[in-house]
Amino acid sequence: LWRDYEQRSRADAETFVVADDSRTPAKRLTMHGQFVSGPRFAPAACDECAAEIIYAARNPDTFPEMRRIGADGGGDRRLTLRFLGETVGVQAPYLVFDQQEFRRNVGLYSDLYRLDRRTGDVRALTREQRLMDPDVATDGRIVAVRQRQDRRELVLVPPALRADSGIPTEAITVIASAADEQFSVPKWSPDGRTVAVERRRLGALPDLVIVDVATRAVRLLAADPAARIVTPAWRPDG
User: Fold this and answer.
1) Which of the chain's termini has less CB crowding within 10 Å, N or C?
2) Contact, 134 vs 183, CB < 8 A?
3) What are phi and psi of 171, to 5 degrees?
4) CB 151 within 8 A of CB 182
5) Residue 116's closest CA among 139, 99, 92?
6) 118: closest CA among 40, 41, 46, 43?
7) pLDDT for 79-133, tens place per residue?
8) What is the pTM (predicted TM-score) of this model?
């Protein structure tokens, strides 16, 4: 039975089921082992550069990292060390990501950081804000989630005005928040007007909602009483 299970799992991993239930070959890109997560397509960082895939990697042999790899599996390399955190917001010149840092020896806070894809320079955007799961709109606005005692709220973070500046706490605005609700992995729509986000509530499995950034209206997009619906992504046409 174990051999049958192993063979089936291997066969499933080597193909990808598409919408019409047909299968297409899958190509393995990384060989790190243990945890590889949060892949995101990124446009070229310069005129001479190629498009790439950004992802997070953790294994027993190295410190956690954020890495890049070509869509063909070539050019895999480390961009920066990254202590936990999986998602990344992509702009042509910058990557915005979350990671955790110790504060005052006992506090562990998640904050937002920005990596310059041309120089590799990393700068903190926030401090002690418990922010995670960032995504970046075309105009530089950042949507993220912020952990509170009884909720994880959806917030809007303005772009830093200068590459060497941080974002003040008072500039962060809440666009969706309710007691005992947890938002995760928000994604900007292509037009920058709405955000698709995973929502978890007491007594229900996760669903997907759309949040209008201007009006703060929350609309249910997809739910299933027998299934978890998570990690949204947008088609280019919206």
Assistant:
1) N
2) no
3) -85, -10
4) yes
5) 92
6) 46
7) 999 998 899 999 878 999 999 998 888 888 999 999 999 899 999 999 889 999 9
8) 0.87
